[in-house]
C-alpha cells in the first residue's frame, strides 16, 4: 500500500473526529440527545443521531498512534491533537468502577477491552491508576471456574449482569485486557485461558454460546466468528506473553 493511501486514511480519521474527541460509526454527531424524544421505535435506544462510542474512538486512536510511529512528520500537529482529544474522551467515559460500557458487544468486558487497548497504545503506563482500575473491575467479575460470563441484560440495564455460566467470548476479552495491561496475577489469567482451551472442540472450533453482540441497547445479534476469533487471539497473546509456560 502506498504512503498516499495511508495519508488519505489518516485524513479521514482526523476529519471524522467529533468536537468531543470521540468517534461515531459512520458520520459526525449531528444533533443532540433530545432528538431521542422523537424516537418512534419500541425496540432500539439512542438511534436518532450517531453517538460517540468507546469502540470507534479506541479503534481510531490505536490507528493514529501506530501511524504516528511510522510517519512522525506527516501532519504531526493534527495527528497529535487528534490523539490527545481521543484520549481525553476515553478517560471521560470510563466509569468510576474502572469499566467502559460497550455498545456493539456484550458489554462491559467488551467495552473495557477497547478502553485499555486504546489508552495503552496512546502511551499510558500499565501501572497507571486508570489501567489498574480497569483490571480490578474485571478480576472482580471472574467466576469460580476461571472464566467470565456477561449477559445481554448488561446492555439493557447498563450495569454488569453476570451470566450463570462462563462464556468463551467474554473470557477472551477479559484475558486480552489483563495481558495487554501486564496484570500481575498470571494465575488468574491462566485460569481464563485454560477454560477456553477446555471448551475448544476437537475440530478446533468453539460452540456457539450465548449472544455476544448487540446494537442500540436492545437488539442482540450473534456474531458467529466471535467464538473463534477472540479465543484464538487471547490464547495467542498469552503464549506470546508467557512463552516459557509449558503447562498449557
Main attributes?
single chain; 248 residues; mainly alpha; two-stranded antiparallel ribbon; 9 helices; 2 strands; 50% helix; 2% strand
Any chance you could write out the topology, listing elements then pairs?
Elements: H1 3-16, H2 54-70, H3 76-93, H4 108-121, H5 129-141, H6 153-157, H7 168-180, H8 186-199, E1 213-215, E2 219-221, H9 226-241
Antiparallel strand pairs: 1-2
Overview of the molecule:
With 248 residues, the chain is mostly helical. The protein has a domain at 138-248. 50% of the residues lie in helices and 2% in strands. It contains 9 helices and 2 strands. The protein has helices spanning 3-16, 54-70, 76-93, 108-121, 129-141, 153-157, 168-180, 186-199, 226-241, and strands at residues 213-215, 219-221. It has a two-stranded antiparallel sheet. A hairpin with a 3-residue loop joins strand 1 and strand 2 (219-221). Helix 2 runs antiparallel to helix 3, helix 2 (54-70) runs parallel beside helix 4 (108-121) and helix 8 (186-199) crosses helix 9. It starts with a helix and ends in a 7-residue tail after the last helix. The model has no long low-confidence stretch (mean pLDDT 95).
Amino acid at each position: 500500500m502506498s504512503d498516499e493511501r495511508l495519508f488519505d486514511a489518516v485524513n479521514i480519521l482526523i476529519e471524522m473526529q467529533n468536537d468531543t474527541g470521540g468517534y461515531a460509526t459512520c458520520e459526525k454527531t449531528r444533533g443532540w440527545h433530545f432528538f431521542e424524544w422523537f424516537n418512534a421505535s419500541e425496540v432500539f435506544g439512542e438511534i436518532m443521531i450517531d453517538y460517540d462510542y468507546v469502540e470507534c474512538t479506541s479503534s481510531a486512536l490505536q490507528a493514529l498512534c501506530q501511524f504516528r510511529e511510522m510517519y512522525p512528520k506527516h501532519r504531526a500537529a493534527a495527528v497529535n491533537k487528534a490523539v490527545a482529544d481521543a484520549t481525553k474522551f476515553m478517560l471521560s467515559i470510563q466509569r468510576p468502577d474502572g469499566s467502559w460500557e460497550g455498545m456493539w458487544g456484550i458489554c462491559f468486558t467488551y467495552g473495557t477491552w477497547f478502553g485499555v487497548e486504546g489508552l495503552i497504545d496512546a502511551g499510558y503506563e500499565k501501572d497507571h491508576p486508570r489501567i489498574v482500575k480497569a483490571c480490578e473491575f474485571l478480576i472482580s467479575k471472574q467466576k469460580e471456574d476461571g472464566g467470565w460470563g456477561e449477559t445481554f441484560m448488561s446492555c439493557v440495564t447498563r450495569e454488569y449482569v453476570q451470566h450463570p455460566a462462563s462464556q468463551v467470548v467474554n473470557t477472551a476479552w477479559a484475558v486480552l485486557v489483563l495481558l495487554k495491561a501486564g496484570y500481575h496475577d498470571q494465575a488468574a489469567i491462566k485460569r481464563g485461558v485454560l477454560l477456553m482451551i477446555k471448551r475448544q472442540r476437537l475440530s478446533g472450533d468453539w460452540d456457539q454460546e450465548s449472544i455476544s453482540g448487540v446494537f442500540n441497547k436492545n437488539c442482540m445479534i450473534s456474531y458467529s466468528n466471535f467464538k473463534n476469533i477472540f479465543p484464538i487471539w487471547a490464547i495467542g497473546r498469552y503464549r506470546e506473553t508467557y512463552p516459557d509456560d509449558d503447562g498449557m
